[in-house]
Amino acid sequence: MADIAPDAITAADIVPPPPTAGPDGTSPATTHHIPSHATLKYIPSWLLLYITKTDATLSQLNRVLKTSSGTDASLQLLSYSLTLLISILSASPQQHKPQKTTARPSPPSSRATDGRPPPRIAPSSPPSLSSLTTRLLAFKTLLGDVRMFLRLWGLVSIYVWAASVYKSPPKDRLLKGIAWLQVGATTGFQVLENAAFLTKHGVLRLGKKTQGACWLWSSRMWAAHVALDFVRLWRVSRLAEARRRSGVGEKGEREEVREREDWWRAFVTNAAFTPLLWHYSLEKGALDESTIGACGSVAGVLAVREAWNKAAPK
Predict the structure, then answer these.
(1) Which parts of 120-172 fold into alpha helices (H)?
(2) Staple 272 to which of 49, 143, 216, 299, CB 3.0 to 4.6 Å?
(3) What is the number of alpha carbons within 13 Å of residue 49 lying toward its C-beta?
(4) How much is the pLDDT for 127?
């Protein structure tokens, strides 16, 4: 049989023909048309490609969310994106636009009988964004609680990190000292955040002043970790430059590229977090919500990208 050109395909080639009448002139209700292989091959290629890509994307997302780091990165991006969106909606003119209410006319007899004022009905104009903003704010608060709840067991991973530093410390003395200082700063951050979070939900009974100090100093411990990481990145770049100049201990091109990408990702992430840490380390803060959302979203995108690449099948 000759090949059929795509332009020659009509509806008759795809839609099943109606069932033929039986000997008694009636159409058999139980007869079904089964599409042949020739019919199935005319399914649009773009649809098959879309289904295949969607399946691959959802499988990859599932692998990302199976890891604790991937889950936290996804929640981080979603939380800070909501912060940015809420700040945009709050600044919208419609957010603060007063709504008009109209009085429902009442018959004179009913007003004379009970003397009550006419009932008021819902505004006929579209509702403002205040309701949407309130719901998004509640969802963002929930995301923050989920992230902190998942970090309650962070001390376990910090212990594993400290054990690895003890067993296989960096050869450079400065990097070794930075690693131990970061372990200490991260431990302080996690302990203080856990105490503040459990007090918030009534598990611990710390005073409000003590709880506020825990929130504040946990942010400062996190800021110390990021500041130390800037020093670490500076030292790593100096060692890499010295290695390239001497030609001793040179690595393969692929490994060099990967190390440069890791270095820049860590640097940009720390740079995005620095304004946030300055804000959270002050009692009254210093940034507006839009700046917080923008900086956090940058760090969130990088975190999700890293988790996505790590979860990719080898």
Answers:
(1) 130-150, 154-167
(2) 299
(3) 3
(4) 52
Task: Say if CB 179 and CB 165 are below 8 A apart.
Answer: yes
The confidence score (pLDDT) of residue 101 equals: 43
Given a contact cutoff of 8 angstroms between Cβ atoms, the answer to whether 118 and 111 are in contact is yes
What's this model's pTM, rounded to 2 decimal places?
0.73
Q: CB-based contacts of 290: which residues, under 8 Å, 6+ apart?
A: 84, 87, 88, 91
Residue written as token pair 């989920």: 146
Residues in the chain where the model's pLDDT stays below 50: 1-23, 26-32, 34-36, 39-40, 99-114, 116, 119, 121-126
Q: Are 204 and 168 in contact (CB under 8 A)?
A: no
Nearest to 82 by CA among 302, 292, 276, 278: 292
Q: pLDDT tens digits for 267-288?
A: 999 999 999 999 999 999 999 9
The burial class, CB within 10 Å (0-12 / 13-18 / 19+), for 296 is: buried
Where do we find the tokens 């939900």? 201
Task: Report the DSSP beta bridge partners of residue 120.
Answer: 103
Please tell me the predicted confidence (pLDDT) of residue 102.
41
Among 225, 148, 229, 146, which Cα is nearest to 187's? Answer: 225
Across the chain, the runs of DSSP E, i.e. the strands, are: none
Neighbours of 218 (CB within 10 A): 22
What is the per-residue pLDDT for 124?
Answer: 42
Could you give the count of Cα atoms lying within 13 Å of 8 in the half-sphere of its Cβ? Answer: 4
Calculate the dihedral angle through the C-alpha atoms of 9, 13, 14, 16, rounding to the nearest 10 degrees.
160
> Which amino acid, one-letter code, is at 227?
A
Question: How far is Cα 181 from Cα 252, in angstroms, rounded to an integer?
Answer: 31
**Would you state the structure tokens that stand for residue 96, as one six-digit string?**
């603060």
Beta bridge partners of 103: 120
pLDDT of residue 41: 58
Q: What are 150's two structure tokens?
A: 């998942």
- Give the pair of three-digit tokens for residue 249: 């201990």
Q: Which amino acid is at 1?
A: M
